[in-house]
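User: Just a sanity check before I run the rest of the batch. Below are the structure tokens for the first item. I only need the designed sequence back.
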């Protein structure tokens, strides 16, 4: 392969640009000081990204035969200075990888910025064949046109015919959305499934950083783990242009990853690559895969997004392994699984106290356990964990979601809105962040009616039972029970035994006036979801609405004997459905005295609609800080 002349061209990788004409390295437009030999090494590596550049090649190119130096020492120092300039690490390289006793390899994808560097073809992933064919055809026709013109035989009709052929040439597919299917575990060890799932999520997270690209959430793609359909069928169901599929094979400290990007409508490979790395280097590989996919589909990647790719902090591999195990348990919805998840996240933090995502995940599982369990969540600890995660990695969106819920539990609507808004800004495709933001806007009477279309939410999570259930429950508060029931039924069709989906549908039917129809759904939620107070309290409401007063009163008695904080507000809702105004206000005042956080919903809860004009009700709302 012909190498580019140092006197021409500009090359780009991550947030860096290399001006070969001026011999300069720049990062985000700022010049980085780099001496001549490290710069020459960088240039040679950029000429052949993804390939081995041997020590002998470096000696012949940079150290002439008549130079009397200690080559090994000189090369070591030059590579060290290059890594310092790039902010790279020899232990966990993102850019320059050492191949012991052989040479070096440049890991990141490289692109040509200037047109006069046409002899250089650095990207490791080939351009789509259709695109290359079109370019070659265009060049060939242009050459013919020039020859005809020189011969004086050029006519208007001949030009139109020739350029008509160019326009008719096959075009490269436009990719604006994709799904990463669950990576297959080829290790021959079922205990490594968590690792394959973790690789899937890591790639989704990396690709989701690119705002010009819509990436389907993990919860939507995991349904295809066991039930694989044709790629075209999956793409159609998820509404995406392309699909990434891959596999991992792990043996001890060695990991082999294969991945390919397929344009689904034509089942056409756009990019494919395999990697063999040590486990400690696995995060850098995931970032590299995401960048190579982005380059292969010509996605628009901003300077900020390039910086995020290149600034991923190194993580102790043992901590990352613990995090992946915790994440596997966190994706389930049982108390026992969440407690195991908590233990793994805490272990990850003990191993690597600088692992930002472990702090964020631990904050999330503690908040979830507090919602489901007998004891209120430790808001101070959750807030501390989320702030620590942001201190270590300000690009994370999940810590802002955790902080938003902490502030909402503290009745601080303004602070909650700020956090949820920032989460949506950082990750527009994260449906959980958007639903949380919708919640606080609704509570504060700032959300337009009817509620904005679900399309924006479903773009990232069209097949996610938990997202659909959360959005359906939200629509009940928003006063759209029929629409809520439709969304909740969609969640049940995806996962028939998902307790939260039946809880969602039961609430929607109850609010639409079908309490008797809602009772079986709420009973099913209570049966499948464990002893969660909210399932039982809404079942009691349904009994009251259906005229089954004795069962409702028995449920109230059971709620009064429960240990959970927040039960007073739930009991007030049942009394309101029974029409007992005195008991309703008595228990609402008890809820206020105990700072039941659910009081933030009293202005939008359908169970309390007939109470909102009462001065006593408005007094409580004012004390909570809710708009009247």
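Assistant: Here's the designed sequence for the first item:
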């Amino acid at each position: 392969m012909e190498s580019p002349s140092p006197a021409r061209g500009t090359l780009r990788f991550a947030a860096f640009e290399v001006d070969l004409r001026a011999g300069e390295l720049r990062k985000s437009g700022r010049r980085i000081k780099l001496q001549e030999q490290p710069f020459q090494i960088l240039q040679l590596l950029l000429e052949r990204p993804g390939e081995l550049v041997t020590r002998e090649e470096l000696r012949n190119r940079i150290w002439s035969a008549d130079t009397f130096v200690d080559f090994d020492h000189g090369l070591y120092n030059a590579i060290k200075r290059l890594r310092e300039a790039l902010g790279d690490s020899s232990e966990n390289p993102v850019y320059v990888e050492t191949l012991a006793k052989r040479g070096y390899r440049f890991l990141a994808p490289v692109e040509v910025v200037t047109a006069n560097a046409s002899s250089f073809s650095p990207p490791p992933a080939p351009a789509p064949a259709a695109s290359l064919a079109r370019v070659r055809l265009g060049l060939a026709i242009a050459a013919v046109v020039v020859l005809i013109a020189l011969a004086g035989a050029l006519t208007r009709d001949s030009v139109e015919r020739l350029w008509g052929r160019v326009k008719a040439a096959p075009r490269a597919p436009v990719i604006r959305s994709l799904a990463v299917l669950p990576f297959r575990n080829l290790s021959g060890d079922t205990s490594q499934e968590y690792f394959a799932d973790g690789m899937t999520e890591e790639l989704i997270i990396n690709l989701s950083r690119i705002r010009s690209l819509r990436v389907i959430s993990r919860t939507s793609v995991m349904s295809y783990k066991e039930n694989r359909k044709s790629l075209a069928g999956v793409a159609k169901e998820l509404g995406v242009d392309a699909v990434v599929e891959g596999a991992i094979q792990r043996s001890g400290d060695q990991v082999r990853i294969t991945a390919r990007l397929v344009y689904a409508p034509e089942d056409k490979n756009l990019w494919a690559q395999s990697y063999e790395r040590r486990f400690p280097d696995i995060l850098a590989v995931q970032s590299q895969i995401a960048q190579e996919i982005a380059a292969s589909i010509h996605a628009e990647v901003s300077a900020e997004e390039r910086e995020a790719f290149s600034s991923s902090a190194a993580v102790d591999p043992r901590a990352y392994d613990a995090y992946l195990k915790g994440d596997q348990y966190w994706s389930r919805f049982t108390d026992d699984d969440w407690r195991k998840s908590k233990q793994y996240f805490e272990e990850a933090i003990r191993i690597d106290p600088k692992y930002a995502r472990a702090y964020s995940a631990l904050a999330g599982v503690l908040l979830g356990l507090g919602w489901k369990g007998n004891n209120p969540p430790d808001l101070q600890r959750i807030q501390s964990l989320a702030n620590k995660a942001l201190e270590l990695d300000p690009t994370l969106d999940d810590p802002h979601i955790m902080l938003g819920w902490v502030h909402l539990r503290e009745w601080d609507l303004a602070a909650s809105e700020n956090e949820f808004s920032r989460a949506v800004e950082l990750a527009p495709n994260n449906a959980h962040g958007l639903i949380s933001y919708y919640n606080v806007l609704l509570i504060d009477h700032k959300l337009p009616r009817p509620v904005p279309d679900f399309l924006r939410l479903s773009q990232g999570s069209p097949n996610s039972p938990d997202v659909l259930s959360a959005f359906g429950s939200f629509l009940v508060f928003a006063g759209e029970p029929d629409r809520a029931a439709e969304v909740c039924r969609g969640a049940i069709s995806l996962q028939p035994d998902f307790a939260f989906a039946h809880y969602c549908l039961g609430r929607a039917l109850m609010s639409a006036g079908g309490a008797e129809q809602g009772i079986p759904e709420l009973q099913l939620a209570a049966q499948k979801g464990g002893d969660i107070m909210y399932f039982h309290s809404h079942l009691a409401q349904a009994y009251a609405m259906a005229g089954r007063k004795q069962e409702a009163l028995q449920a109230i008695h059971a709620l009064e004997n429960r240990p959970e904080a927040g039960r007073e507000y739930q009991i007030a809702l049942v009394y309101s459905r029974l029409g007992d105004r005195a008991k309703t206000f008595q228990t609402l005042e008890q809820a206020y005295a105990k700072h039941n956080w659910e009081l933030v919903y009293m202005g939008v809860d359908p169970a309390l609609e007939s109470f909102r004009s009462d001065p006593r009700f408005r007094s409580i709302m004012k004390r909570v800080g809710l708009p009247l």
